[in-house]
């Protein structure tokens, strides 16, 4: 049986699954065909089989029951937002210019999370054409009101702020409703009088007083018409103390409890000076007064030379459990040395304590704990995957985990041209498109998975014959179009070669600088890429093609931006 996936529908046909775009394959709950004989690649097609990504963070003691490990979502899952509906919890993250966008997770215990969808899962919803990987969708906010889920978000450099809605968090989500206000990081607050408010980051009134001077704005939202109403007003100017020139106040959320309105926001920028601050008011429109004990979360005051540091903590969201306890989800990073980390900003969970009427995520001077007592909620097992999200280990076998089409494979920018053919759960074919990594105008034939831990191994078997000079197919690990590592088969000077190339900036050749090159073995070629902290080793079978390769170009500090490393399958053909 064959399943052809197009934008319009899923159709049954004969023997394999072919995809108009990765989007539908990622988002549809389609039954995949059973494994069979390995296919012969078509001209210009690369066939990948025995796909596997394993990763780990060694050296951590096994947590004692009943405790959980941080991060709860390891790898590039930044800017978490959370909401509770009865006994169910839903969480979303930023995905920037990767597609499909805005992963949606479900949990019943706040620790084990199962991805149930992607909110941006149709190419017509948003267009990421021409965008660098760290543009696109920033900091989504998820809420639930009545019988509807709401995601408020910003598409940076692609039309601005928008709202999407759904009856189920798994989707389908509506097409974007564009909202006429500037800035980034909007979130929606539902007051108990039935009114709704949007709070967001934008430029301050008048001329900014210093670099990084921003403000938090508030305006009422009419959910009946999905429009803004009434005046907009600044509720936080600069940060908790503008005399100290605080920078990048952003990611605001409003909560109401105990008769007070609490406005929580990130401050300091999403790097080592990141923090979370809290203000309080008696009215939703303010005035909001900061707590004298701010910040309520930061790691910037700790010794940067401490062992196995967790850094850059901030951009939090709060949720109250059905038992009345409060928890915070937030982003943080795990450098392997200095400020170098390849895995991006990850999602952590901590309980919230209340001090004199103020929420505290972590007292000053305390390091984020890696193991924490389990929330007082019923434990659960993951619903559709054999892996749990919060452990120090991660394993991904094949294209999909089971007979269901996967949700966690990503491609770069919105799909334009068909390229993916799924033969079975472990074997896919990629048509080598004339769309290259290294070209922002491209929509390349690439599917990848987030690197979940600092130590990772990606392996596959490749059948591929390049058709023209410069054609290539293999494993690609990337932070963006200018910073990547490639290991695979190419045609160079008329010879079929097995190469490692590295790009470490826009001045390097588009396909990267050649690190190592050997004659390509005949037939199916085994490719293995090992990553450990800032180094990489590339092997085919027992032959080491390149060792001790500098992989720090995959770190956020060197590549810039807001994403983490994505490792996957890539094919490029000039014709």
Strand content: over 45%
From the spread of the alpha carbons, the general shape counts as: globular
Terminal CA distance reads 31 Å
Tally of DSSP helical segments: 2
Look at the helices and sheets and give the structural class: mainly beta
Total number of beta strands: 42
Please estimate the helix content: under 10%
Largest sheet: 11 strands, mixed
The gyration radius over C-alpha positions equals: 24 Å
Query: Ranges with pLDDT <50 over ≥5 residues?
Result: 1-34, 382-390
Mean pLDDT: 90
Describe this structure in words.
With 575 residues, the protein is mostly beta strands. Strands 1, 2, 3, 4, 29, 31, 32, 34, 39, 40 and 41 form an 11-stranded mixed β-sheet that branches. A hairpin with a 7-residue loop joins strand 20 and strand 21. The longest helix is centred in the N-terminal third of the chain and has 6 residues, at 22-27. The radius of gyration is 24 Å and the shape is globular.
Any key phrases for this structure?
575 residues; globular; six-stranded antiparallel beta sheet; single chain; disordered N terminus; eleven-stranded mixed beta sheet; 42 strands; mainly beta
